[in-house]
């Protein structure tokens, strides 16, 4: 990431020693599947908590058991999650852990073998999605191709661009640049920005294939 200027739309998680230790575990090639899932979940919860910080709030006053008023805040809008299948589904539990009974939609985009272009195969979204803030879930932002296509699906369902927050554990400068150029109003919350992509479009150093690591085939 040496000469990459991080766009203002991108919020990198605070680089604490906790986060670095979690990243070290999930990046190690010999980490067993169960540990990979457990520690990736911990990072996902941090991403969700940071994503929620970008929602609008209103003042809220409550009275504590001491009888004294506390001046706090409440979230103004409602949220939902949308996972980009299949790897994004691994982020659903982390979202549920932070937001009880949150609605979660799914989008499946795959490469069309004939055209080599990303193609929409499936979309199931909450009916009232246009009135919600959307936390878009995909663990790895590599080229940005699937994420860009997934956002188009959300826009086609009348979700406003500035009501989408894209969460991912690890991103590549190439993906960030492509995504931000297309959707400048969308906030990206990411755990770390890596050096770039290899010839197979994997993020390096990365974690390898995130989906395969979750099912134990990678
Ligand atoms: N998807 C993955 O699972 N890993 C990468 O490095 C890039 C895309």
UniProtKB/TrEMBL annotation:
Domain (Phosphoribosyltransferase) ranges: 15-217
One term of GO molecular function: GTP binding
Reported cofactor(s): Mg(2+)
Pfam families in the record: UPRTase
Pathway in which this enzyme or protein is active: Pyrimidine metabolism; UMP biosynthesis via salvage pathway; UMP from uracil: step 1/1
InterPro entries linked to this entry: PRTase-like, PRTase_dom
Enzyme Commission number, as recorded: 2.4.2.9
Family label: Belongs to the UPRTase family.
Protein name: uracil phosphoribosyltransferase
Lineage: Eukaryota, Fungi, Fungi incertae sedis, Mucoromycota, Mucoromycotina
């Amino acid at each position: 990431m040496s000469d990459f200027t991080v766009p203002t739309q991108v919020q990198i998680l605070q680089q604490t020693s906790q986060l670095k230790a979690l990243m070290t575990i999930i990046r190690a090639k010999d980490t067993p599947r169960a540990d990979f899932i457990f520690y990736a979940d911990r990072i996902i919860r941090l991403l969700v908590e940071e994503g929620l910080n970008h929602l609008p709030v209103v003042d809220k006053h409550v009275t504590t058991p001491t009888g004294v008023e506390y001046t706090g805040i409440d979230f103004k809008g409602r949220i939902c999650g949308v996972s980009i299948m299949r790897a994004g589904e691994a982020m659903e539990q982390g979202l549920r852990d932070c937001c009880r009974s949150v609605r979660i939609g799914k989008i499946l985009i795959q490469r069309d073998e004939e055209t080599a272009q990303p193609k929409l195969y499936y979309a199931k979204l909450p009916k009232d999605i246009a009135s919600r803030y959307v936390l878009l879930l995909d663990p790895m932002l590599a080229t940005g191709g699937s994420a860009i296509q997934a956002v188009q699906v959300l826009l086609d369902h009348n979700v406003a661009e500035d009501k989408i927050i894209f969460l991912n554990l690890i991103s590549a400068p190439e993906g960030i640049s492509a995504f931000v150029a297309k959707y400048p109003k969308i906030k990206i919350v990411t755990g770390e920005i890596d050096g770039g992509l290899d010839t197979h479009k994997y993020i390096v150093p990365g974690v390898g294939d995130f989906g395969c690591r979750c099912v134990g085939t990678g």
